[in-house]
Amino acid sequence: MADKVFRVNMTDLSTSIEDVPADWAGHGGRGLTSTIVAAEVPPTCHPLGPNNKLVIAPGLLSGTAAANSGRISCGAKSPLTGTIKEANAGGSSAQRLAKIGCKALIIEGQPEDNSWYSLLLTPEGVTINKEEELIGKGNFAVVDAVEKRFSDKIGVISIGQGGEMQMCAANISIKDPDSHIRSCGRGGLGAVMGSKKVKFIAVDAGDAKVEIADMDAFRAANKVFAKALIDNPISQALGTYGTNVLVNIINEAGGLPTKNFTAGQFEGHEQISGETMHDLIVERGGKPRHACHTGCVIQCSQIYNDLKGNYLTSGFEYESIWAMGADCTIDNLDKIAEMDNIMDDIGIDSIETAVAFGVAMEGGVLDFGDADEMIRIMKEEIAMGTPLGRVIGNGAGNVGRTYGVTRVPVVKNQGIPAYDPRAIKGIGVTYATSTQGADHTMGYTIATEILGVGGSADPLSKEGQVELSRNLQIATAAIDSTGMCLFIAFAALDDGTCLPALIDMINARFGINLTADDVTNLGMSILKTEHAFNVAAGFTNLDDRLPEFFELEPIPPHNTVWDFTGEEIDTFWNF
Amino acid sequence: MRVQVKLFAFFREGRFVKEDKELPEGTTAGMVVDDLKIDREEVGVLMINSRHCKFETVLQDDDIYAIFPVIGGG
Q1: Are A237 and B68 an interchain contact pair (Cβ–Cβ within 8 Å)?
Q2: Strand ranges inside A353-441, DSSP E
Q3: pLDDT tens digit string along A192-206?
Q4: Percentage, residues of chain A above pLDDT 70
Q5: How far B28 CA lies from chain A's nearest CA (Å)?
Q6: How far apart (Å, rounded) are the C-alpha atoms in residues A172 and A195?
Q7: pTM value?
Q8: CA A356 → CA A395, A403, A414, A417, A498, distances in Å?
Q9: Cis peptide bond N-terminal to B69, omega within 30
Q10: Cα A288 versus chain centre, distance
């Protein structure tokens, strides 16, 4: 199918299929969502009002046989941060969108009444249908019902109760090949989908296929690329222990934020570690390796069963386990898995929500370590939309303001993830300068500071950290445009065959001649486009700062504080 | 001197999670790796007392020494 832009106007319930404008043609994934949001969304608009637009795009290589190319990007102005936002996930919808020739889906406007709708995308275009049956339901019920209505091959993009209630922690959920959930987690994009009154988007690709300009060259490059991924030792460890292999090493480095960011090591780290998780999975007949999308050769996901051997959760990530575990001081992996599954169902970000719980614990709403009360609040308060549920469901910053807590780990109102910036300083530069609030994936300096990938940097020193974060943020913006999982970066940083093969695949797919410099320039231009949107929305360099408590409170065991000056941070944008 | 040695991920297989070892003065981080029959090529990160170190770093009494294979996540 030739690539088109699918546009849906929810104000007058019209749809159109448009040619791709020339200056959007070279973009995919995040590069495309950010380019469209910057071009069409007024930066000062209310994120939940009629002028915001939700843009969903597969990556440049999605829908092809390229290994690990099944990421889907969602973009809009974020209700959590007020900045431009892109969140991406695996699952099976990116490949289906690409196959039907949907380069981007733009959802604009909003219905004037309170009716809810669903969208059906096929190679012929978009159909808008009224939806009643599934309103108020969680994601698992939605996936189940949509599969029954169409077929189990259908792609599903949906929101749970969190998105319907327009909570700032609401994510957009993507059905995976096992009919479980992957999440475009950060920044409250589920609330934007809820504000458009779209409960779910079904993608029926039929027999449609992506066109490849030079199939022989594509196959040859993919072979080299996949080999680089498979041979990489980090890929192999990810397939065995999942991302949760990080709990013990980040704890050992003294950078595992514990008890709402008051310590850098957690006594219960071993009980929630990747090593323990692997053993429990094997003991209970689960699967340590699992692909979140067809074609993934790293397989960092898993099937985690309960004590009786019944499915409990999958896609059980380090960030989620850290947030519910160390940050809320819960050392019971089964309880954490149960909460992970509940949050998948409600459709709320497991980082934002759990960091919000950590702040709520500090504010005395519940005790640190009380997993049963967390579970009760998720089910009876957040999913039901009670006042307390909405306080927590609107994120860590909101909880801090509501309960008078000053130790609130957020940047641009987005919860800080699983690495303390006082003990791992480069990641603090990423949190401060990212165009989208605190987000480790924007420039994953942990690779170099802690893991020794792509060189090394002393995590307790400021030296070279701004440059490291800048280089990684530029590279990440480019990778996020390809549809590739970010974990290809581990191979790309240390294996000279990986990145050239990736560029060869893009060239073979489109019949073009990109070079490595073009890719770097693409990354830079995406960052600048996003930054310009934020500036026009009212953000200044003074928003590129960490919360004050990081400067005031030394964190054990290293007893270091955040000591970057504003001037030092601002040099990030010198490119 | 007494050093606590900690192993992670698949380095634990057939070895241990944590063990106190009596080591001669001058023992380096790399010598402990070799004694454990861990291939240096497989080592990703070494830390002494929560700080990164090298194979050549000399261990001191009461050190806590952690040995990780090449791993990543995020």
Answers
A1: no
A2: 410-411, 414-415
A3: 999 999 999 999 999
A4: 100
A5: 20
A6: 13
A7: 0.98
A8: 5, 11, 10, 11, 39
A9: no
A10: 22
- The residues in B 38-67 lying below 8 A from A, measured between CB atoms, are 42, 44-45, 47, 50-52, 66
ipTM of the complex: 0.99
Give me the mean pLDDT over the A423-452 stretch: 98
Whether the Cβ atoms of residue B72 and residue A451 lie closer than 8 Å to each other: yes
Q: Find all residues with CB under 8 Å of A504, minimum gap 6, and list them.
A: A217, A220, A221, A224
Q: Are A562 and A465 in contact (CB under 8 A)?
A: no
Q: Is A40 exposed, middle or buried (0-12, 13-18, 19+ CB in 10 A)?
A: middle
Angle at A151 between CA A149 and CA A152, to 5 degrees: 120
Give all domains of chain A, ordered by start, each with its CATH number: 4-203 (3.60.9.10), 212-240+421-575 (1.10.599.10), 242-419 (1.10.569.10)
| Å between B35 CA and nearest CA of chain A | 22
Two tokens, residue A570: 């601002």
Nearest Cα to Cα of residue A67 among A206, A230, A217, A183: A230
Torsion of CA B13, B15, B17, B22, to 10 degrees: -160
Q: Which domains does chain B have, with CATH numbers?
A: 2-69 (3.10.20.30)
Please indicate if any CB of chain A lies within 8 Å of the CB of B70. Answer: yes
